[in-house]
Each structure stands twice: as structure tokens, then as C-alpha cells.
Specification:
Elements: E1 2-8, H1 14-30, E2 34-44, E3 47-56, E4 59-67, H2 70-97
Parallel strand pairs: 1-2
Antiparallel strand pairs: 2-3, 3-4
């Protein structure tokens, strides 16, 4: 998995990089088909914004959140991303698990 962390109007410290990497481990447990993740962290006046673009095999996900604290924004972002990945995984499993209807004999 490729991980890219970008800061807009914001210097990304090692502590924040480690926090993001630790939170992404949970995403990797739920989906083994993660190809790349691009995290964008930005500060706009008093709001801290965190965005994630995740490239899965067969699907791209985009999640964003705005909070007053950067660590809180990262935590909420990872929760939203986890739900989105699980939803995608359930949808892909449902499509494959649905049996085809038997042809009617005439």
C-alpha cells in the first residue's frame, strides 16, 4: 500500500504521520485490496480539514471531515473511511453471493 500524506497551509510532523499510519492499520485489516491512500490535511482559519482518497481494487473512495482539532479530524476521518470500506466490501460480497435464478423449464 502506498501512503501519501500532504499538508496544505500546515506542516505535517512525524507525530501526525505516525498517528495516521497507526489508524490506517485498522483499514488494512478490513480490506486487503488497498492499493494506495492519499491523505490531505489542511488548516483553514479555525477549522482543521482531513481528506482521504483511497484506491481499492475496483473502487475509489473519497472521505473528508472538518473538526476543530487535527487529531480529532484524523480520528473521525478514519472512522468514516472504515465504514466506507466495510460497506464496499459487503456490497462486493453480496453481488458475488447472490445465486442466479434457475431457468424455467418449458
Amino acid at each position: 500500500m502506498n501512503l501519501k500524506i500532504t499538508g496544505l497551509n500546515f506542516d505535517v510532523t512525524e507525530a501526525i504521520k505516525n498517528h495516521v499510519a497507526a489508524k490506517l492499520e485498522r483499514i488494512n485489516r478490513h480490506a486487503a485490496n488497498v492499493i494506495s491512500v492519499a491523505i490531505t490535511l489542511s488548516v483553514e482559519k479555525v477549522n482543521n480539514k482531513a481528506e482521504a482518497d483511497v484506491h481499492l481494487a475496483g473502487k475509489d473512495l473519497h472521505v473528508e471531515t472538518i473538526e476543530s482539532d487535527m487529531y480529532a479530524a484524523i480520528d473521525v476521518l478514519m472512522d468514516k473511511l472504515d465504514r466506507a470500506v466495510l460497506k464496499h466490501k459487503e456490497k462486493s460480497n453480496d453481488v458475488r453471493a447472490t445465486p442466479k435464478p434457475a431457468p424455467a423449464d418449458e
